Amino acid sequence: MSDKSEKNVEMENIVSLAKRRGFIYPGSDVYGGLSGTWDYGPLGVTLKRNIMQLWWKMFVDDREDMYGVDAAILMNQKVWQASGHVDTFVDPLTEDTINHRRFRTDHILKDNGVDPDGLSMEQMDGAIIEKGIKSPDGNPLSPSRTFNMMFTTHVGATFDENSVSYLRPETAQGIFTNYKNVVDNFYPDLPFGIAQQGKAFRNEISPRDFIFRSREFEQMEIEYFVDPSKWEESFEALLGNVHEFLDALGLPADKVHELEVTDTDRAHYSKRTIDIEYDFPIGKEELLGLAYRTDFDLMNIQNNAGKGMEYTIKGTNTKFVPHVIEPSFGVERAVMAVLAAAYTEDEVNGEKRIVMKFPEHLAPVKYCVSPLLKNKPELVAKAREVYQILKKKHGNVLWDDNGNIGKRYRRQDEIGTPHCVVIDFETLEDNAVTIRDRDTTEQTRVSIESLK
Ligand code: GAP
After folding, report:
1. In a domain, 440, yes or no
2. Rounded mean pLDDT of the chain?
3. Residues of 99-124 as b/e, b for ≥16 C-beta within 10 angstroms?
4. From atom 4 of ligand 1, which residue's Cα is the shortest distance away?
5. pLDDT of 194-233, one tens digit each?
6. Which residue in 79, 215, 351, 355 has the fewest CB atoms around it within 10 Å?
7. Closest residue by CA, ligand 1 atom 22
């Protein structure tokens, strides 16, 4: 089997498990779907929340220099004019000249073995002509044009240019617009950060690769405000914090890579960007970005809204507009990396199994409790007692009395439950239960008292 098809098989297996076991479903599936949208099922929503809560704990709750906000998704259109998104938040689009299907030009090049990084739109079109690249349907491609990725909507009952608004394409702007509020309310010392988690929307030309490139997704972003003369030390410190978080997600360090983004590929607002890439089953792709945004955004607000964005160093007359370092995480990409890192196929007693080896703190279900036999009322009653004890303590505890014990273990392995607790006839004698470990499949006997 070639490397590429092995990767495809692994991705297909993960997508299939995600649907079969209630992690992630295609959006609007009953109506034939809506491309680029995904719904989280009961296990997926818990996994996603565990990731988001871990991030909030590590980047906000555990630190003294971070403040959280939760800004509105709809913002005044001036925000997106000033930020440059109205003019420059675009992707190159090319069209099949026969059936009019549309594609991202850089994706077409990549799929045909040409690296589009650093190429202008004209250079990409040149490469298409030079290499004789056709659309995936074998037809000639049109010259590229730019396509703005923001979803437009109207606010209120009037549909004119003044009522235009956008579904936010990044959470960052909701932080910048609240920078002054936080400074005035909390008087933080520099450097300090404002963090936000929430939905972002991009009308991607070709959403693909499961949740990796979606049209609706979540971001976890920090704008970290610094003295311009000290931006480098904060950049390095945040880079270290990013790696600590990825480690806590259980991502193997040898699959995490830093890419220094070149001048031509950096976003319009950035003076330095490091993309953190991950070896996903679809290949090495961007997981998150760390950007030095300078004073681009605060100066835009100052110039366009006419409000002073200067920060005064306490006890002095020294004033300046702070510069910003931005770690920007995509939740869906974190979920996809965690799923891929956890997905394992191995053999137990000569039988193949699929096991999701989530770190325990991320596993959507921590314990599964079962009576050995479901038709023995005394076992069921004892098992219920144990279930209540664990449920009270851990919350995410499952009851499972379907099928034989082997099948229950397989099911729990597939959803990554670290511990399966079984109540058998001996329990009625010794008040102890069997706990089976997901990864080693080892079984140990522990007293019910100790579970409390
Ligand atoms: N505020 C900066 C910003 O939004 P970005 O590189 O455009 O920067 C940040 O996006 C992160 O958001 C990406 O690294 C990725 O994790 C996630 N992301 C971006 N577009 C996405 C999409 N279409 N689907 C899923 N995640 C996406």
Report:
1. yes
2. 95
3. eeeebbbbbbbeeeebebeebebeeb
4. 170
5. 999 999 999 999 898 999 999 999 999 999 999 999 999 9
6. 351
7. 213
- Are 56 and 84 part of one and the same domain? yes
**50 within some domain:** yes
Centre of ligand 1 from the C-alpha of residue 321, in Å: 26
pLDDT, one tens digit per residue, over 252-272 is: 999 999 999 998 888 888 999
For the CA of 169, the nearest atom of ligand 1: 4
Which ligand 1 atom sits closest to the C-alpha of 207? 23
Residues 119 and 258 in one domain: no
What total number of domains does the chain contain? 3
On whether the pTM is more than 0.85, the answer is yes
| Domain co-membership, 190 together with 308 | yes
List the end-to-end C-alpha distance of the chain, in Å, as a whole number: 50
Ligand 1 binding pocket, CB closer than 6 Å = 170, 172, 202, 204, 213-214, 217, 219, 221, 286, 288-289, 328, 330, 332-333
Same domain, 316 and 382: no
Q: Residue whose CA is closest, atom 14 of ligand 1?
A: 288
The ligand 1 atom at the shortest distance from the C-alpha of residue 204 is: 23
Q: How far apart are CA 200 and CA 333, in angstroms?
A: 13
Does 206 lie in the same domain as 79? yes
Of 333, 335, 336, the residue with max ligand 1 atoms within 8 A of its CB, to mutate for a pocket test, comes to 333
Mean pLDDT of 372-398: 95
Which of helix, strand or coil describes residue 256?
A: strand
Tens-digit pLDDT profile for residues 116-158 = 988 999 999 999 999 999 999 999 999 999 999 999 999 999 8
User: Residue 55 falls within a domain, yes or no?
Assistant: yes
Burial of residue 268, with CB atoms counted within 10 A of its CB: 0-12 exposed, 13-18 middle, 19 or more buried: exposed
Residues 106, 198 share a domain:
no
Q: How far is the CA of 329 from the centre of ligand 1 (A)?
A: 7
- Decide: residue 179, CB within 10 A, 0-12 exposed, 13-18 middle, 19+ buried: buried
**Containing structural domain, residue 210:** 3-89+149-339
